[in-house]
Write a structure and sequence with these properties.
Blueprint (H helix, E strand, L loop, with lengths): L2 H6 L2 H9 L5 H19 L2 E4 L1 H16 L11 E5 L26 H8 L3 E6 L31 H8 L5 E6 L5 H7 L2 E4 L19 E6 L2 H11 L29 E5 L11 H16 L3 E5 L7 H16 L1 H6 L6 H12 L2 H21 L5 E5 L17 H4 L9 H6 L3 E8 L5 E7 L5 H14 L11
Parallel strand pairs: 2-3, 2-4, 7-8, 7-9
Antiparallel strand pairs: 1-3, 4-6, 5-6, 5-10, 9-11, 10-11
Helix pairs in contact: 3-4, 6-7, 10-12, 10-13
Amino acid sequence: MDSGDIIRLTASELSGLIERREVSPVEAARAYLDRIDAVDFKFNAYLTVTREEALRAAREAEEAIGRGEYRGPMHGIPYAVKDQLWSKGIRTTGGSFIAGDLVPDEDATAIANMKRAGAVMLGKANMTEFAITGASHRYSSPRNPWDLNRFTGGSSGGSAAAVGTFMCATSLGEDTGGSIRGPASWCGVVGLRPSLGRVSRYGLMRGVWSMDTVGPISRTVEDAAITLGAIAGHDPRDPYTWDAPVPDYRAALGGDLKGARVGVVTDQMDDRHLTDPEVKAAILKAASVLGELGASVEEFSMPLAADAGAISRIIMAVEPSFDQREWVRERPQDYGHEARMLLLLGSLMPAQAYYKAQKLRSMVRRNLMESMERYDVLVSPTYGKTAPLIRDDVVITSKEMAVSEQPYLVRRIFNLSNVPAVSVPCGFDSAGLPIGLQIGGRAFDEATVLRVAHAYEQATSWHRERPREA
């Protein structure tokens, strides 16, 4: 099999070939490294490519498999990782000049778990500055696989671009306010935010600590399932992880949706400022497909969904400003404008505002938990609009500019509640840009979220479309 065929395989397909020794991990790693060399100058998906380390890990995987020591579906699979996670002996910038020379002396647990599973890290993926901004890239702006002039989404845009342009088989991202699901939606791939505590955050550069989660961005739901299976689990070094069994997420996939209860969150879908009519139509069509697969589908409203954005914006300003208070005080000029303004805002925020936001957050979570008594999953647009044109680091000069581009706020209810949610491709707008369907569920019930997403994916063909730029 030639390298062009290898990189077009899903991680799950490649895994089967590696297990049967029809493709070697070294062949796979070289195919992806050659692909990075050939096209990443257009997409800026990587900040650091670890060619020698990748080939060494691939040879080790090949030798282990040759000895009959096959470790599972991620063994020999080449992947990218957001540059927010520590990597031993490899520069980890957090997307910022401030940490541009940081070389950790140990791996983040998620990377250590991927190594334990035999996966092959190709390099560190591009991201917005410290994962706290929406569009501020200090090194270069990742480019969208469907249109080079379009944004990939923040903050895990490099991971999504690498997956969408066949520069890795799967990847790791991090989601605070939608930083896995948003890029997945805009790049036409799959992105899963796990429950807080399902995946260790040890070695993750803090963005917003009460909401940060590590999770997969992949080409298919099955690929996301096997990637999550490799990184999930209790970690004594992260007291937030739950000491609970990790299901076989891949085995949970398959079958129809008879008996499944689906709630379609309609809040904001009728607001043309927040949701494009083409996006709304795609989501409602996707919901009807779930109904055809046997699920009961019902539209409903969550009263506090529209407040999720305001609540999360306060938390997402205050927490990083506290964590980075010394840098903000001593090196403000080294931040990009958007990050600097956010951190200064957070440092000036009254304690009462943060306390009020946390009280409202508990109400949002209660609202969601009550909804989950009626439904097994909730669906909505991942983003109300498709990928916008790339813009420079935002210079906020007025209140009007600060509020002119609001995200699709229903996405934030899952962040505030620390429960799982996935984005899967569900169509394209008239400009040929991808639309994402968001599916959220109960805490630690990633298996159900993935099962519903997989059923939808297999009933449609959106995930088989290939980006015109890739």
